[in-house]
Amino acid sequence: MTAQRRLILASQSPARLGLLRQSGFAPEVIVSGVDEDAVTAPTPAELALALAEAKASVVAARPEAQGAVVIGCDSVLDLDGEALGKPADAEEATARWKAMRGRAGTLQTGHCVYDTASGRYASGTASTVVRFGEPSDAEVAAYVATGEPLHVAGAFTLDGFSAPFIDGIDGDHGNVIGLSLPLLRRLLSQLGVGITELWAPVK
């Protein structure tokens, strides 16, 4: 019988952790500590990928990650070619929502998977178009007051208070939450790792 592969999520995102748990995984969490402000790239998609690769590589190099499969992810919203991550404060979150409402942006999530057993990695970016509704100023203020937009890329999420303000998406729902499971499967396949090998044992 093949030994269960360890899976490590190189992210402190509770949404990513929850998505993986709901999908049959039981990942350990090791936060990379990467200084996101120090990473730059020409486009939002390339920035998301560079951040994901940085996080995964830092965690994969740690002794406690030896033998495990490490997943690094990072998301940014591409709005008019500008990469929007987490807003710095409530004022920025409010301005962001007033600029986004009634428009569409592309949520770019970089994924990097390291197989520390082989020393190989695979990476890619998933893109999902998000169509924003038109919340009133009062609704925006109430949403910002929840504190949620300060903790999520693009100042919104599909699985929280802002869900009523999203008219629809074109693409992978999980990608907007923070991790594309279909892309994860393809990246693992490139490394010769079957995604079912990483499922937690059914109790």
What does this structure look like?
It is a single chain. The chain is α/β, with parallel strands linked by helices and 203 residues long. Helices cover 30% and strands 24% of the residues. The chain contains six helices and seven strands. It has helices at 14-22, 44-60, 90-100, 137-145, 173-177, 181-190; strands spanning 7-9, 28-29, 69-79, 82-84, 104-115, 120-132, 166-170. Strands 1, 2, 3, 4, 5, 6 and 7 form a seven-stranded mixed sheet that branches. Strand 5 and strand 6 form a beta hairpin. The longest helix has 17 residues, at 44-60. The chain is elongated, with a radius of gyration of 17 Å. The relative contact order is 0.18. The mean pLDDT is 96.
Between the first and last Cα atoms, what is the distance in angstroms?
Answer: 17 Å
Q: Poorly predicted ranges (pLDDT <50, ≥5 residues)?
A: none
String of helices and strands: EHEHEEHEEHEHH
What class do helices, strands and sheet pairing give? alpha/beta
Radius of gyration: 17 Å
* Annotation, overall tally of beta strands: 7
Morphology: elongated
Mean pLDDT: 96
**In percent, how much strand structure appears in the residues?**
15-25%
> How many distinct helices?
6
